Amino acid sequence: MALIELRIQSLRNIRSLSLQAPLGINLIHGSNGSGKTTILEAIFLLARAKSFRSNRIGPLVTQGEKQLTIYGKIEENQLSHRIGIQKQGRETTIRIDGQRLTRSSELAKILPVQIFTPHSHQIIERGPEYRRRFVEWGVFHVEPNYLEQYRRMHRALLQRNSALRSSTHLDPWDLEFAEAGEAVNRYREQYINALKEFVTQEVQEIFSGHTLSLDWKRGWSEQQTLLESLQAHRNSDRDKGFTQLGPHRADLHLLINGRKASEVASRGQQKMVVFAIKMAQMQFFTANSQIVPILLVDDITAELDRDNLYKMFDRIDHSQSQCFITATDPYHFDVKSMAGVFHVEHGSLHVV
């Protein structure tokens, strides 16, 4: 997978920018606030129709402009696609090869993108929803039926919570939520079990001398079906006004040498652990689809020493992914080994 052309109009401090990117590792460097992370944000927007820096697209439009537009041309196995996103007012328009899309999930299928940022360690430090999102990315890309079941589960959960608060009949929503929820969990467990082999391989390369275990907690008792658990907790759920157990409460425990990573790993170690599991996700995705996702790495030098940076670059190179890396200082890198080097200043891009 390769993004061979990117055009940005009116995104944050970038009024107009065009980028032709080669395969391999592309380094984008510049001072803080220059616009280098905004270029990664534009690529992410093409892939997800949302930002990794903000929950809303509207505020991303350059001050004084009415709309933002991002265009990308991608190639995979000698096939090319054109992707465009335009934001004006409250309306977001997405097009692939000129055809308008109604669901942004189609973008993720056609342009798989993995991202690593200075905040990626939050997968370890923060709550279960961060780790569920990590799992969702992987399951979505390898199991075509997952999204349908997930949406079905989410709709049933909303209806069940509403019924709990209004004291209406729960049976139909218990059945619907349990059926969809069991399916969602099966897909998740199958994915985690298959991912473990790839995690072990990456940890040996990146985090040698340690073991990393993935311990999946599905969100309800292992001794009960989901339906049995829902029925057993009905009274408690009515008192609380929401569904306390189920796949929406699942968690992935990351264990270093048998202990929780959040308790024993330094910030730098946490980043290396997260980088390892994200690279494992990419390797698993490629093994199943024969497609190599695009990798975005923002501010790679933050809180990492030279040895760990070398390990990261080695794994990125080994992945054969087209990669876009941002940094404030290019002298941390062997610039001659880069496929492309770009300098950003005041929202303008220059080839180095």
Beta strands, count = 15
User: Alpha-carbon distance between the termini?
Assistant: 24 Å
Largest sheet: 6 strands, antiparallel
Global outline: globular
- The proportion of residues forming helix, as a percent range, comes to 40-55%
- Which CATH top level class of the largest domain fits? Mainly Alpha
Radius of gyration: 22 Å
Instruction: Please name the CATH topology of the largest domain.
Output: Glutathione S-transferase Yfyf (Class Pi), Chain A, domain 2
What structural category arises from helix and sheet content? alpha/beta
Q: Specify the number of helices.
A: 11
Average pLDDT score: 95
Write the CATH architecture name of the largest domain: Up-down Bundle
Helix-strand pattern, N to C? EEEHEEEEHEHHHHEHHEEHHEHEEE
Neighbour order of strands in the largest sheet: 2-1-4-5-6-7
